Amino acid sequence: MPVLSTSPFLKPAHLWSPRNSPGRQRRHTLPASEFRCLSPEDAVSVFEIEREAFISVSGDCPLHLDEIRHFLTLCPELSLGWFEEGRLVAFIIGSLWDQDRLSQAALTLHKPRGTAVHIHVLAVHRTFRQQGKGSILMWRYLQYLRCLPFARRAVLMCEDFLVPFYEKCGFKALGPCEVTVGALAFTEMQHVVRGHAFMRRNSGC
Predict the structure, then answer these.
(1) Coiled-coil regions in this chain (predicted)?
(2) Beta partners for 45?
(3) What is the sign, positive or negative, of the torsion defined by CA atoms of 67, 68, 71, 74?
(4) Regarding predicted confidence, which is higher, 139 or 23?
């Protein structure tokens, strides 16, 4: 697995200069904006954002708190959080899948030998919505996946009203997803993350 600090896409958004070098920074200050993988210790903050974002729309969450902890324990490297001054404002949680299409089992399983990154959820804190943060976070996440040697594509399922958002992020619809949750039906979408050799050679991955 790559070490996150080696990936230019996950470095703090502020730029280094002599003025903000470690020797000159005030003690105990937090970076204004930081992207990093999540850990099980972030699970409660993740769930609070997700619960508020999804329950009002669909009545349920893609992942419950124990499932969040499950994936952040098994595959934290497939998650990404956006922090503003130490506060989580947006996140993505993924796991690996080893079949061409998603099935009901994909909702709870992580397949370590898989080459498809199943994006379970993307959510933004209500205070930071309508600012383009979801698109920016997805872009950074896809750049990061291109640095992972085992990742071939990203897949997700979403309700129809979210299809245009993910199309703008570069995903292509594969058709109806066989997974259902209660009365909800979904479209399955895919983004190929390999085949970008020039980008990988020049990205510092």
Answers:
(1) none
(2) none
(3) negative
(4) 139
- Give the architecture-level CATH label for domain 33-192: 3-Layer(aba) Sandwich (3.40)
Q: What is the pLDDT, as a whole number, of residue 184?
A: 87
Q: Among all residues, which ones are annotated catalytic?
A: 95, 109, 120, 122, 166
Beta carbons within 10 angstroms of residue 137's beta carbon: 22
Distance from first CA to last CA of the chain, Å, rounded? 11
Q: What string of H, E and C letters represents the secondary structure of the chain?
A: CCCHHHCHHHCCCCCCCHHHCCCCCCCCCCCCCEEECCCHHHHHHHHHHHHHHHHHHHCCCCCCHHHHHHHHHHCHHHEEEEEECCEEEEEEEEEEECCCCCCHHHHCCCCCCCCEEEEEEEEECHHHCCCCHHHHHHHHHHHHHCCCCCCCEEEEEECHHHHHHHHHCCCEEEEECCCCECCECCEEEEEECCCCHHHHHCCCC
At residue 58, the pLDDT reads 57
**Global pTM value:** 0.81
Domain range annotation of the chain: 33-192
